[in-house]
């Protein structure tokens, strides 16, 4: 009997997963809302609003993919470059992930780790974005495929989960500050992984006077450019430039320009609807956490799709896309032909934009280094990814390409580091990785927290002094 119940539960869970995020998200958010004390009508309406907002974002991103993809491919073809690992897109990689025989184990492990970390107060992130668990699971699947050791595969996915939830906590303040999303964290590996490069590189750029003194942002560009700085006009101009570089005729260039203009206008509107549904859940979660955990912070972990509509993010991504294609041609050791995942570059640069506080020069430099790492890591792991796809019986349209790759899976640096540690002399490399994670954890939870408290106290003291000075002037 218990076996049948367990099978029924897993079948139901798999059915919801197979429906995709636009169906799964409203169901999960409704359940979360009920747990946090919302009435069923309010919880269902909030969940459905989030689902509609997500569907709107997905439609616009698909629209962007449909238009940018062929243009990007045309730019590559004009260079007559032959690269043997085709970027087939994150969707194809997700299909490979969910078809794995150990996927059920990995999803359970990731979910259990989130719950245990919450109970132990080792994370503040409640990750309801179960669909994107595939970013963590694919690392375990690739490790298992290479090592034939299920324990190493599960271990790799577990380390990915711990890293992801902690990085979500650490990056939450800048998500709240830059994107104005209180109570929300983003445990999406496709966005978080860029911080592995962005944080140290941003620190390095701050040591260079040119970058340190630069405050140039998209908002500044809009101010100085006037009419041409409007988001819809910028989208039009960027689309026109990409179309010209792709060798399109005049009609196609104009169509691409208007399409990119539409993207910059529509995504923020869809994001606003997403936030409308999120607010009741966020508010009830904070009240619930204050009641149950005596004021403890609790962040709702959402898909990074909620921030890619930011004008700074989209504009940075549209600048990075043609530069990425050019870089793929000349980058030593690269085998990846960028194509399908060029449309998800906004996810790769979103948290970079928040980290630099919208500094456009830094965004471009860091964004290019991030995409270079995607090309290198994607090239290194493309043979394994191709073999896994064949092993689970998934047929991918590769054209004349011998291998497949993506800007997802182990092309992302966070995922690649964990994959490498668990497949290259794991008895040595895994302990080194765990020690490095422990050191970073201690720094961010202890040292940086202490520094932040000191900064807050100093700011409060300075404010008191300024108020006292004003009061003295009045007297």
Topology:
Elements: H1 2-18, H2 21-35, H3 40-78, E1 85-87, H4 90-98, H5 103-119, E2 125-127, H6 134-147, H7 150-179, E3 184-185, H8 189-192, H9 195-205, H10 209-213, H11 218-225, H12 231-245, H13 250-292, E4 299-301, H14 311-330, E5 336-337, H15 345-355, H16 360-391, E6 403-405, H17 413-423, H18 426-474
Parallel strand pairs: 1-5, 1-6, 2-4, 3-4
Helix pairs in contact: 2-3, 3-13, 4-6, 5-6, 5-7, 6-7, 6-17, 7-17, 7-18, 9-16, 12-13, 12-14, 14-15, 14-16, 15-16, 17-18
Please tell me about this protein's structure.
The chain has 475 residues and is mainly alpha-helical. The chain is 74% helix and 3% strand. The strands form two sheets. Strands 5-1-6 form a three-stranded parallel β-sheet. The model has no long low-confidence stretch (mean pLDDT 80).
Instruction: List the uncertain runs.
Output: none
Percent helix range: over 70%
Count every helix, treating DSSP H or I runs of 4 or more residues as helices.
Answer: 18
* Quaternary structure: single chain
The sequence of SSEs as H and E is: HHHEHHEHHEHHHHHHEHEHHEHH
Strand tally: 6
Taken as a percent bin, the fraction of beta residues is under 5%
Quick overview:
This protein is mainly alpha-helical. The protein has helices at residues 2-18, 21-35, 40-78, 90-98, 103-119, 134-147, 150-179, 189-192, 195-205, 209-213, 218-225, 231-245, 250-292, 311-330, 345-355, 360-391, 413-423, 426-474; strands at 85-87, 125-127, 184-185, 299-301, 336-337, 403-405.
């Amino acid at each position: 009997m218990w076996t049948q119940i367990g099978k029924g539960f897993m079948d139901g869970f798999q059915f919801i997963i197979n429906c995709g995020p636009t169906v799964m998200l409203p169901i999960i958010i409704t359940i979360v809302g009920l747990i946090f004390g919302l009435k069923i009508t309010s919880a269902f309406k909030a969940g459905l609003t989030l689902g509609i907002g997500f569907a709107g974002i997905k439609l616009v991103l698909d629209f962007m993919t449909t238009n940018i993809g062929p243009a990007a491919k045309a730019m590559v073809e004009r260079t007559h470059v032959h690269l043997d690992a085709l970027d087939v897109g994150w969707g194809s990689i997700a299909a490979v992930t969910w078809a794995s025989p150990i996927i059920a184990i990995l999803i359970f492990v990731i979910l259990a780790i989130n719950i245990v970390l919450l109970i132990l107060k080792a994370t503040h992130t409640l990750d309801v974005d179960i669909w994107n668990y595939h970013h963590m699971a694919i690392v375990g699947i690739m490790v298992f495929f290479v090592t034939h050791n299920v324990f190493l595969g599960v271990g790799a996915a577990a380390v990915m989960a711990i890293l992801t939830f902690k990085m979500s906590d650490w990056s939450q303040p800048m998500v709240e500050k830059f994107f104005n999303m209180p109570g929300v964290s983003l445990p999406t590996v496709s966005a978080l992984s860029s911080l592995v490069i962005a944080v140290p590189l941003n620190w390095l750029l701050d040591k260079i006077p040119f970058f340190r003194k630069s405050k140039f942002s998209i908002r500044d560009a809009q101010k100085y450019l006037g009419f041409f700085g409007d988001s819809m006009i910028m989208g039009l101009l960027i689309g026109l430039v990409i179309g010209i570089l792709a060798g399109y005729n005049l009609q196609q260039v104009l169509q691409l320009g208007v399409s990119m203009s539409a993207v910059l206008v529509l995504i923020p509107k869809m994001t606003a609807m997403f936030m409308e549904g999120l607010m009741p859940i966020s508010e009830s979660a904070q009240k619930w956490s204050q009641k149950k955990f005596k004021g403890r912070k609790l962040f709702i972990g959402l898909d990074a799709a909620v921030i890619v509509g930011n004008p700074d993010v989209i504009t940075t991504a549209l600048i990075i896309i043609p530069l990425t294609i050019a870089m793929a041609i000349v980058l030593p050791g690269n085998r990846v032909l960028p194509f399908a995942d060029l449309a998800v570059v906004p996810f790769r640069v979103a948290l970079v934009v928040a980290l630099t506080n919208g500094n456009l020069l830094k965004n471009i430099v860091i964004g290019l280094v991030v995409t270079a790492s995607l090309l290198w890591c994607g090239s290194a792991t493309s043979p394994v990814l191709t073999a896994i796809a064949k092993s689970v019986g998934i047929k991918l349209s590769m054209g004349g390409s011998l291998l497949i790759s993506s800007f997802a899976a182990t092309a992302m640096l966070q995922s690649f580091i964990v994959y490498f540690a668990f497949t290259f002399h794991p008895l040595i490399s895994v302990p080194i990785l765990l020690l490095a994670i422990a050191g970073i954890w201690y720094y961010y939870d202890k040292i940086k927290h202490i520094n932040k408290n000191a900064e807050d106290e100093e700011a409060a003291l300075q404010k008191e002094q300024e108020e006292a000075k004003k009061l003295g002037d009045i007297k």
